[in-house]
């Protein structure tokens, strides 16, 4: 009887992180910064049909880098999450923080799962507040860390 293949959990997580980082590195950059007029999203994008920057809900923006099909799926899931929450409760209950937390749970679960591959994405969720002090920017990495 042969012994089962063994990889230490530390090595497995390191390999998954390296895999995700390598996939993200192949993508084009996105810059999100706070300025006097609000929050600025800048993306290098040579395609007219693929969008790296989008609005998710009122005053909440999204930017993604990495595998396009993966961050596009996350963008659509964020829009659906925001629409359902706004419809079921109140529009004021939809915040950048709640959307970022939902993304963090999804990305973290996929990263720690041994069955599915980690998402090869890094995303940013930004929310314009009523004034400059209330603006919020959340950067989420492939492992769900905000």
Q: How many domain regions? A: 1
Low-confidence stretches: none
CATH topology: Glutamine Phosphoribosylpyrophosphate, subunit 1, domain 1
Computed Rg: 17 Å
Describe the structure.
With 146 residues, the chain is an alpha+beta fold. The protein has a single domain (15-140), classed as 4-Layer Sandwich (Glutamine Phosphoribosylpyrophosphate, subunit 1, domain 1). Helices cover 38% and strands 25% of the residues. It is built from 3 helices and 6 strands, in the order αββββααββ. The chain has helices at 9-25, 68-88, 96-112; strands at 30-35, 38-43, 53-57, 60-66, 121-127, 136-140. Strands 3-4-5-6 form a 4-stranded antiparallel sheet. Strands 1-2 form a two-stranded antiparallel sheet. A hairpin with an 8-residue loop joins strand 5 and strand 6 (136-140). It is globular. The mean pLDDT is 90.
Topology:
Blueprint: H1 9-25, E1 30-35, E2 38-43, E3 53-57, E4 60-66, H2 68-88, H3 96-112, E5 121-127, E6 136-140
Antiparallel strand pairs: 1-2, 3-4, 4-5, 5-6
């Amino acid at each position: 009887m042969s012994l089962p293949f063994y990889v230490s959990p530390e090595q497995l997580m390191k390999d998954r992180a390296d895999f995700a980082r390598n996939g993200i590195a192949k993508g084009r950059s996105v810059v999100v910064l706070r300025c006097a007029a609000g929050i600025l999203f800048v993306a290098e994008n040579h395609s007219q049909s693929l969008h790296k920057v989008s609005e998710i809900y009122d005053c909440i923006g999204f930017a993604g880098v990495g595998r396009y099909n993966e961050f596009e799926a996350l963008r659509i899931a964020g829009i659906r999450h925001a629409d359902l929450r706004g419809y079921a409760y109140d529009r004021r209950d939809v915040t950048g923080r709640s959307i970022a937390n939902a993304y963090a749970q999804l990305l973290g679960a996929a990263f720690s799962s041994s069955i599915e591959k980690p998402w090869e994405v890094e995303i940013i969720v930004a929310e314009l507040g009523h004034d400059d002090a209330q603006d919020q920017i959340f950067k989420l990495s492939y492992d769900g860390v905000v």
